[in-house]
Amino acid sequence: MSDLSDVNEFNRGIIEQFRANGGKVGPPFEGAPLLILHSTGAKSGKTRLAPVVYQQLDGSWAVFASKAGAPDNPDWYHNLVANPSATIELGTEDVPVTARVAEGDEREAIWSKQKELMPGFAEYEQKTDRTIPVVILDRAGTAG
Questions:
Q1: 5 has pLDDT over 90
Q2: Which among 61, 82, 118, 134 is placed 20 to 30 Å from 55, CA to CA?
Q3: Which residues are CB-neighbours of 103 under 8 A, at least 6 positions away?
Q4: Taking the CB of residue 119, how many other CB atoms lie within 10 A of it?
Q5: To 10 degrees, the CA torsion angle through 9, 119, 106, 84?
Q6: Residue 60: is its pLDDT beyond 70?
Q7: pTM to 2 decimal places
Q8: Are 142 and 83 in contact (CB under 8 A)?
Q9: How many Cα atoms sit within 13 Å of 139 on the Cβ side?
Q10: What is the pLDDT of residues 68-122, one digit of tens each?
């Protein structure tokens, strides 16, 4: 598990709760499927941590670069594009993954399902002019 010194206060509290409770957290993510993404900084080369809502796929996980509808993508998205090798904390398990950006029909199917599962994502989509990226995290060595 990585050092929390570079993580902002909001995310630090969520990560500490997640680790203390085997992957469970309280509001605002209570009940949501959450993982901790360890990416490598595109510029810094340092490990960066981000709590991220995910959708379980068949043997993989989809995460959404929504940034709550901000006009730009979150830093973790840029990090994964630059350095697709990452690790996720799922519950108490650390899983090495390889990231790829979903495109076309694959993206649309996953994104549509996510908006049904968690309607807040539809609200994020309404707030921004950008297409919110969907990133697939395949278990390392099993990339689809």
A1: no
A2: 82
A3: none
A4: 10
A5: 0
A6: yes
A7: 0.92
A8: no
A9: 10
A10: 999 999 999 999 999 999 999 999 999 999 999 999 999 999 999 999 999 999 9
* Residue whose pair of structure tokens reads 């996720």 in the numeric block: 88
Token representation of residue 29:
């993510």
Written as one letter, the residue type at 76 is W
CB-based burial, 89-118: b 16+ in 10 Å, e otherwise: bbeeeeeebbbbebeeebbeebbeebbeeb
Q: Which of 68, 84, 78, 70 is nearest to 118 (CA)?
A: 68
Phi, psi dihedrals of residue 118, rounded to the nearest 5°: -140, 90
Q: Which residues pair with 97 in a beta bridge?
A: 86, 139
Residue type, 130: R
Q: Which stretches of the chain are assigned E, i.e. beta strand?
A: 34-40, 47-56, 60-64, 85-90, 93-101, 134-139
